């Protein structure tokens, strides 16, 4: 359903190689609120919203070692024992976000990876406000477009790979917001979901247009706003 993310991320990687700036107005990125800051997740999410990020999808879950290795691109857990033990120790909040220049803006908002350094030089960053040290630094954010694609593909596989994607994460029941996939699915005829030509010709451009308008308007409830917008602007209704 969110295959436009895949094309945008590929374009970002190609632009980086060629030295050209991406023409996309919105850029997908990814964050994880770590176990040490999970109890402050609502405050951190509010900071993200205040700074202009759109929350495309959110998910509460607990990492398995296998999923953690896949998400962070670890070929081996050896040498990462402290990190693995910490990240699998409790619930985390995975967040797929979008905004203009999203990856760089989120890195700046998060601050230096070592919270001690963040407190000294970037006291208003998320890691300065909620982190403790380099391991317990409250939030992980994607390093680049390649990392973003890998991480979103692990935590939100349907965003990049469609509804047929295998989802290996067991989601916790506690206080998770509705995945945007479910809301959007209500506004699209189910029989068209597997039609790739229809998706690329109608759904992806329409969805990207809606996300751009939502970014400019910054509605109080973006999920409901976007679902309503998609119903009103469904290209099938105007054909």
Automatic annotation (TrEMBL):
PROSITE patterns: NDPK_LIKE (PS51374). One of its GO terms (cellular component) is cilium. Residues 9-18 have a biased composition (Basic and acidic residues). It comes from the Eukaryota. Residues 1-25 are annotated as: Disordered. GO terms for biological process: cilium movement; negative regulation of oxidative stress-induced intrinsic apoptotic signaling pathway. InterPro entries: Dpy-30_motif, NDK-like_dom, NDK-like_dom_sf. Residues 26-162 form the Nucleoside diphosphate kinase-like domain. Belongs to the NDK family. This is NME/NM23 family member 5 [Ovis aries]. It comes from Lepeophtheirus salmonis (Salmon louse). The lineage of its organism: Eukaryota, Metazoa, Ecdysozoa, Arthropoda, Crustacea.
